[in-house]
Amino acid sequence: MSAELEAAFNSLLIGQVPAMWIKKSFPSLKPLGGYIADLMERLGWFTDWLNEGLPNMLWISRFHFTQGFLTGTKQNYARKYKIAIDLLDYDFEVLESVEAAEANPPQDGINVIGPYIEGCKWDHE
Fold first, then answer.
1. E strand or H helix that includes residue 32
2. Confidence at residue 61, expressed as pLDDT on a 0 to 100 scale
3. What are 59's strand-pairing partners?
4. For tag attachment on the chain, is the N or C end more exposed, with fewer CB atoms within 10 Å?
5. How far, CA to CA in Å, does 85 sit from each of 28, 33, 34, 53, 88?
6. How far apart are CA 112 and CA 105, in angstroms?
């Protein structure tokens, strides 16, 4: 067994995500059980996307490389309107609720939700 495989085995024994997995994976500080549960949820979400089409709300933090996804979104817009991608920039609008965003997908662009705590209210006063 190589040193890298032995290190992975030892990580699994103590319930940690092996370093060799993290090198190719989404960032996570969770222990092995939480990591696997998160991985399964992500895979289910992507499977639903493949089977049912683009969802009205995209959970941005589920992507391993979010910058690449956002660039791809910009490329789709640039191709649709035949505009050089270098001339485009992002514009953001904060919506009142997740339900409103899911019910009203934008004609151009995407609705995203990021790392947040459900039910959390921000105190702005």
1. helix 32-52
2. 80
3. 113
4. C
5. 32, 41, 39, 25, 5
6. 10
Strand (E) positions, 7-118?
58-59, 112-113
* Length in residues, the chain: 125
User: Three-state DSSP class for 40?
Assistant: helix
Report the C-alpha gap between 45 and 56 in whole angstroms.
Answer: 13
Taking alpha carbons only, the member of 7, 102, 49, 53 closest to residue 17 is: 7
Q: Do the Cβ atoms of 43 and 35 come closer than 8 Å?
A: no
The pTM of this model reads: 0.69
Please list the residues that pair with 113 across neighbouring strands.
59
Q: What whole-number distance in Å separates Cα of residue 62 and Cα of residue 48?
A: 13
Q: Is 118 or 105 the better-scoring residue by pLDDT?
A: 105
E strands, 34-113, are: 58-59, 112-113
Torsional sign, CA 86, 88, 94, 95: negative
User: How far is it, in rounded angstroms, from Cα 36 to Cα 16?
Assistant: 11
